[in-house]
Design a protein that fits this description.
seven-stranded mixed β-sheet, alpha/beta
Length: 219
């Protein structure tokens, strides 16, 4: 099926894949983040006014590579990786835990910053707003969401580069489904409004086909 301009939630294969395929797919996601703007974009979104030894929660962390990238840039950071699927966390560094992003097992205002990466697009607009509200609940200072931006060009990137870069077929399938499920800047702004976030800053990260949301936590 080709690209459609409207947002369409698609079925991704990772969660139900056998372990060997899942390992390759997760490794591909790490490569995408490392070489195509994920790591640098997230590290660049960390606000300057956080303390040197800030605490962070990575929601939907999978292999935990985004947290590792942040800690390389900010050595004093203490990052907890959380994912609902324990298998996804095997390569993540501790501390890590299996946790539902909609029911995080932490008290209010536990972490200085709470982020998600390549996670928000998995959900309907209403559920994405609910996830952001839960992230805001456990954040003291900031909520950050970094994700894909839906576009025809981003939809074609993985199939176009598949042979050159050796992407696993499941990576190509799930990547295309992810882009079709992703938000535009305007749609993400509407989700943030529904979530009750204030003073939201939304930006596009070119040429990486990424979009981000940063919102301070209002007491």
């Amino acid at each position: 099926m080709g690209f459609r301009p409207e947002r369409v939630l698609g079925m991704e294969l990772l969660d139900g894949a056998p372990d060997p395929q899942a390992r390759v797919n997760l490794a591909d996601i790490v490569r995408i983040n490392r070489y195509f703007g994920g790591h640098s974009s997230l590290a660049g979104l960390i606000p300057d006014d956080l303390p040197a030894a800030f605490t962070a929660l990575d929601v939907g962390a999978a292999s935990g590579d985004m947290g590792r990238a942040v800690k390389r840039r900010f050595p004093g950071a203490w990052v907890v990786a959380a994912d609902a699927i324990p298998r996804n966390l095997r390569q993540a560094q501790p501390p890590k835990l299996a946790a539902d992003g909609f029911h995080l097992p932490f008290a209010d205002r536990t972490f200085d910053v709470v982020w998600s990466s390549l996670f928000l697009h998995h959900f309907s607009s209403g559920d994405a707003a609910r996830l952001l509200r839960e992230m805001q609940r456990v954040a003291r200072r900031y909520v950050i969401a970094l994700d894909l931006e839906r576009s025809r060009l981003s939809y074609r990137f993985l199939p176009f580069t598949r042979r050159l870069l050796g992407w696993h077929p499941m990576t190509v399938h799930d990547g295309m489904a992810s882009v079709q499920s992703a938000f535009t800047k305007e749609e993400l702004a509407a989700v943030a409004l529904e979530a009750g976030l204030a003073d939201v800053r939304i930006r596009r990260h070119m040429p990486w086909f990424r979009i981000s949301l940063v919102a301070p936590v209002v007491s």
